[in-house]
Each structure stands twice: as structure tokens, then as C-alpha cells.
Amino acid sequence: MHSFRYWGIIVLTLGIVFAQSEKTLFVNEVYFIGNEAISEGKLIKNVNLKGSYIFSKTVFDRRILKLDAITIKNRYVTEGYLQTTVRDSFITENNVIDIYFIINEGKRSYINKIDVKGNQLVSKQNILKKLNLKKNNPFNPVALNSNLEVVEENYYRKGKLFANIDVKTQIKDSVDIEIIINEGPDVYINNIFIEGVDSLKLYVIDRELYFEKGDLYNLDDVQLSQRRLLETSQFSFANIYPVKFIQSDTLVNIVVELRYFPKREISSEGGFVPIEFGGLTLSGPGAFLKWKNRSLFGSTTRLSAETSIDLPTEEGLRYPRFKINVNLENQWLMNLRFPTKVQALYELYKKYGSSDNPFILRYGFKWSSINRLTETSFVEFGMRWEKFSQQEGSTSDVEQRMISLKTKFDFSDNPLFPTKGIIITGDIYSVGGPLGGTRKYQKMDTGIQSYLPLPRKIVFASRILYGMIFNWQDEYNDYEEVLFDKFYLGGAKSLRGWHALQYPDERKSDIYKNGKEIRFLSSYEIRFPIMGALGAEVFIDGGQIWDTITEIDLRRLSWNAGVGLTYASPLGPIRMDYAFQIDNPKSGMIQWGVLYAF
């Protein structure tokens, strides 16, 4: 009797499994009926159940179908179609399903009137700008609700932590909006509580906080303090938040919640990295192994040792570069917050050209102080002493001492995939001078990059670079084959119609003779998606290099044009560009690169 029961359960289970496998249905096509305001191409991006392709099939699920219908309705709501209805239907034939979304768009609702009441600290114009509300524009309730947080944060920066914003809408043929604001009282800090830290180390946290007991609450001060705590590299987690003081409506307690990094750690990483090569800016795949001690002798001083291998993607430079760095860092110097880094470096790389060329040994010391304005903007002051030694050949050892000032102001929306904003850079170098060394000259390099979003996720990107060297002497050219401190053009991040450093002349040797003392470079690029992570770009680059100011003539720039494919990898974009010289269309070449050209 028991065996019969077990066999019955097995047969029933197998029957259910095979019955489910037989009923597995796939989506064939998705149709939209009644859509006029929003194209089918835009709507299909909002649904999960998509038609089948050669290499992919979508399993049909009734619950997801219902969710897709809701998503389509919400898409219409964001465009101002508040009365839109969406019905879903499907037809089954030969184990595949055709899906139909029947859409009744209804009338579009526009904003007729906007009233703002109760605001004193923040103007009506400022509030409407942050809420993105404008009379006669389509009404988007989804954006309105999400933008309320931006207005609230504006009040938090003025001590109004308990400000309340109430939005009332009256929808008829058009929409009347009433925004009622209760700014509330000024809120002050009653006390500060620090969690997750040894009481003996409280001074480490106190000196990083940009606020103290009795201050008016300011969200900017809180966010700055949180960033400063993370910059110490002592903490893997830092969170600062207010807690209302029960006995008062105008006081809050601030809680600083912290979590330490391990004191000692060995880590390894790989990805696309910037690569120094004289005065050139390169990038390529790289990997490193790093040992860290985040609390040297119990202090906040950090000691680390790193060994890495990088591989530039530029023609003539595609040889591994081996590097070892030893770093000593601290955010404080005595009682001043003065971020300081001392580095000892050793690097071995091939001389430009062929694998038969000799190795160049670079070693030295570097001191720098970097002040981060945001996560991607900074001002860095530094000094370095370096020595370059060519293992073979007649070039003697070169010693270089330099003072540098580097700035970057990044107002773009994404460091790897920018779609809007601008980036301004400016670097100044003083070689030799009071520091001594083999050479004495000054160098300036500036640039601006802009990104403009266009419809259909298209981005128009542009850049202009200008650089100049002062007090260069002819005898310095003897060391240029090692240092490459002059300005060069050509390569995956420069004039893409020429190989790296091969402008204006193609050279198999003595490539340093292409270097000049003045450089101008401009690029214009249209980037657009194709499918998924795959994208494309159409570009044009124009540039020129000169030896003297009197030679400068922007009407005689050299131009190249081309197209490229991009792949948005988790580590950043990978590019394959095809470029040709405008004056010589048969000169086409393929340039491989990682990260965008700019």
C-alpha cells in the first residue's frame, strides 16, 4: 500500500513537470494599437515582454503582462496624458504568443495656473525651477513628486529641517497647482553622537566634522563632513543623519555612524587605467597588487606598496609597463588639514617603436597635495624628482625636477559615460628653476570638454585643447626620445587619422622629432546607442602643432573624420574607431581605445 502511494506521488510529479514544460509559451511579437503621441519604438523600451529574436526568446508570463500595461500607462502619465487607459490582450498559436496593447490616449493635460504659498526663504521662481513646473507645459505628476525632494533639500541647507511641502492639484480640462509650504522653525544641533569608533580615536572624527554643537543645521556641512571622513581612507562606511530631540521642536541630535576598514589589507584589481608617458595622456588595461597599512603606528598615516602592469593601446606603445610604488599618505599635516602624499616610484618600460628597442628605467620621488572639491574635481599641487636611464644606446641619464599645479573642474553627469555638462582642465609645470635639474622650462596645458544631450539618447560631445611650452632650448631635444615632454598629435585620443605620435610625419625611428612647443586640438563627436551595450560614434578631429607663436594659423589645421563602434563594459567604454585624413581619404586606419577619446 505504501509503495503504491509513493509511485502515485512520483507519477503525479512527473505529470506536472511535463505538463508545465509543454505549456511553456514564448512571445512572438508585441503590437501597440492606438498610440499616436508616443512611438512604438519608445513604448517597447518600457515593457519586459519583448518579441523573440534569433538568439533570444522571451517566456510569456501573465503577471508581467499586467505590469507592462501599468508601465505603459505611467509612461503616458509622464507626458501629461493623465486619462490614458491601456488594455492588454494576447493570441496563442503554435506555442507562441502575439501580445496586443490597446491604448486610449485621451487628452493631454497642460498646466494652467501655479500658486506657491508660505515660502519666505526660497523664492517662487527658484521653487518652480527645481520642480520643473512652467505654465502651459504638459503636467507630469511623476516628475513633480520626485523633484519635491530637491526643494526640501534646499530648505535643509538653510536650517529648515522640518519644512513641509504639500501639493494640491485640480484637474479639469487643464491643471491648477497649489503648493503650500510650511517652512517650520530654524533647527539647531543639540548634541553629536559618534558610533562605531574607539573613544580614544574620537579626535580623528571631530577634526573632520564641518559642524559642531549649537550650529544651525546645514545639509551641505553634513555631506561635506561625510566626504571628508571617507577621504581619510580609515572608514569603509560613513553615515551622518539627524534625530529629532524629543524635548524641543528646534533641536536635533546628529548621529555619526562609522565602520572601519581592516587595518591591514592585500588587494588586487584590474580595469582601464590612466598611463603616464612623458607629457602624453594614455589609457589601457592594467592590473595591480596592493598591500596597505591604514594606521601606521596607530596613527591615521597610511602606508601602501603597489606593483602593477599596464598595457597602452596606442600603436608603437603596446608593450607592458612594469611599475612599483611605495606611498605614505595623510589628510593632516600637524594641526592643518593638508592632504599629503609622498611616493617613491620605480618603472620599467620599452622605448617607443619596436620590441627590439631598449628598456627605459624611471625612478624617483614625488610629493603632492590634492584638494578634492567633489568626487571628480580637484586642485593638486606637487613636486617631483625623477631620473630616466636608458639601458642601451648613447643617451645619458636624464634627471628632471618639476613643480606642478593641476586642476580639474568636472560638471558632467558621469565620469565614464558623460551625457551632459562640461569639464575644464588646466595644468602648469615648471621644470628645473630653483629645483635644478638637467633642463629648465615651463609648460601650460588647458582644455574644455562639453557634452550636450540630444533626443533618442544621442550625445554631442566636443573638446578644445591648447598647450604651450616656454623657454625651451634646442639642446633639450637630445633627451626628448626618453621624456616626450613636447606636444605630439596622433593616436586614439588625439588626431585619430594618424597613428600615435606619427603626426605630421610617419617615422619608424626618431619619433621625438615630431614634437613641437605649441599644440591646438579640437574634436567633435556624435555618440548614439545601437542595441543594449553596443553603440556607435561619428567624429571629426582637427589639430596642429607649431614651434613658435608666429607660426600659429588656425585656418591650416589638419583634419580627420571617421566612425566607430563602442561597447559599454562595466569598466568603461571600449572603442574601435575607423578614421581617415580629410586630405587623403585612402589613409584609413583602425584605432583601438579604452574609455572615450574625451
Give an account of the 3D structure.
- The protein is mainly beta and 598 residues long.
- It folds into four domains: 2-104, Roll (Ubiquitin-like (UB roll)); 111-182, Ubiquitin-like (UB roll); 188-260, membrane protein fhac (Ubiquitin-like (UB roll)), CATH 3.10.20; 264-594, membrane protein fhac: a member of the omp85/tpsb transporter family (Porin, Beta Barrel).
- The chain has helices spanning 2-22, 40-44, 62-78, 124-131, 141-156, 202-206, 219-231, 480-483, and strands at 26-33, 85-93, 96-104, 111-117, 164-171, 175-182, 188-195, 235-244, 251-260, 264-277, 280-293, 302-310, 321-330, 340-350, 359-372, 378-390, 398-410, 421-431, 441-454, 458-470, 518-531, 534-546, 558-569, 572-581, 584-594.
- Strands 10-11-12-13-14-15-16-17-18-19-20-21-22-23-24-25 form a 16-stranded antiparallel β-sheet, with no helix packed on it. Strands 1-3-2 form a three-stranded mixed β-sheet.
- The longest helix is centred in the first third of the chain and has 21 residues, at 2-22.
- It is globular, with a radius of gyration of 31 Å.
- The termini are far apart.
- The model is unreliable at 14-21 (pLDDT under 50).
Pick out its properties.
Ubiquitin-like (UB roll); 598 residues; 16-stranded antiparallel β-sheet; mainly beta; single chain; 3-stranded mixed β-sheet; 8 helices; 15% helix; 4 domains
Helical content class: 10-25%
Radius of gyration: 31 Å
Count of discrete domains: 4
Q: How many strands appear in the DSSP assignment?
A: 25
Q: If helices are DSSP runs of H or I spanning 4 or more residues, what is the number of helices?
A: 8
Quickly give the structural class: mainly beta
CATH fold call of the largest domain: Porin
Shape designation: globular
Low-confidence parts lasting 5 or more residues at pLDDT below 50?
14-21
Broad CATH class of the largest domain: Mainly Beta
Work out the oligomeric state of the chains in this entry. Answer: single chain
Overall pLDDT level: 90
Which percent band covers the strand fraction?
over 45%
**Second-tier CATH architecture of the largest domain:** Beta Barrel
Strand order, biggest sheet?
A: 10-11-12-13-14-15-16-17-18-19-20-21-22-23-24-25
CATH 4th-level superfamily of the largest domain: membrane protein fhac: a member of the omp85/tpsb transporter family
The biggest sheet, with number of strands, parallel, antiparallel or mixed sense and barrel status, is:
16 strands, antiparallel
Distance between the termini: 77 Å
